[in-house]
């Protein structure tokens, strides 16, 4: 009896298809990481800024070493993310501004904060020797609700 040999198929040719599954997995993990981290990168305290039609762009407010004072809706003042009473601001700000050429402080105030609290903070900053004060705002979008501007805008006051 003759034995029939089964034909063996040898396919030593390299696979020409690209396997994208690992790349997609890595990209999804990176997307999730960025979605979680991005809100934490916000500098200072989150406030609902006043809306203006013709803001002046102040890119220096986004710098890491910028001095940012925030005033919340209920009148609390923050230096960066540290809550401080407004009467303690001059000493802390004076320490931060020593040995700096640019003595600009940016005020990030809630649009519903009492005006007297903002004036009190400005007066205390002037006592600390601040040369320029930048008031951060958002630009009003014509035809729809106001949306935040990518770069903070301000009207500088002396």
Query: In terms of per-residue confidence, which ranges show pLDDT below 50 for 5 or more consecutive residues?
Result: 147-158
What radius of gyration results from the CA coordinates? 28 Å
CATH topology: Nucleotidyltransferase, domain 5
Structural class: alpha/beta
Number of strands: 8
The level 1 CATH classification is: Alpha Beta
Specify the biggest β-sheet: 8 strands, mixed
State the separation between the terminal residues, measured CA to CA.
Answer: 108 Å
CATH architecture level-2 label? 2-Layer Sandwich
Mean pLDDT: 79
The percentage helix is: 10-25%
Structure description:
This protein has 158 residues and is an alpha/beta fold. The chain has one domain: Nucleotidyltransferase, domain 5. Helices cover 25% and strands 21% of the residues. Strands 1, 2, 3, 4, 5, 6, 7 and 8 form an 8-stranded mixed sheet that branches. The protein is elongated and about 105 Å long.
């Amino acid at each position: 009896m003759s034995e029939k040999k089964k034909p063996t198929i040898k396919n030593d040719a390299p696979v020409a298809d690209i396997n994208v599954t690992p790349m997609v997995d890595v990209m999804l993990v990176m997307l999730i990481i960025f979605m979680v981290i991005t809100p934490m990168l916000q500098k200072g305290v989150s406030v609902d800024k006043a809306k203006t039609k013709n803001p002046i762009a102040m890119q220096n407010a986004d710098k890491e070493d910028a001095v940012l004072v925030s005033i919340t809706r209920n009148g609390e003042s923050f230096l960066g993310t540290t809550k401080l009473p407004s009467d303690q601001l001059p000493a802390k700000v004076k320490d931060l501004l020593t040995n700096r050429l640019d003595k600009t402080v940016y005020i990030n105030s809630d649009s519903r904060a009492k005006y007297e609290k903002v004036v009190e903070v400005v007066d205390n900053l002037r006592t600390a020797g601040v040369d320029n004060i930048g008031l951060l705002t958002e630009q009003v979008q014509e035809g729809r609700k106001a949306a935040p501007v990518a770069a903070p805008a301000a009207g500088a006051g002396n």
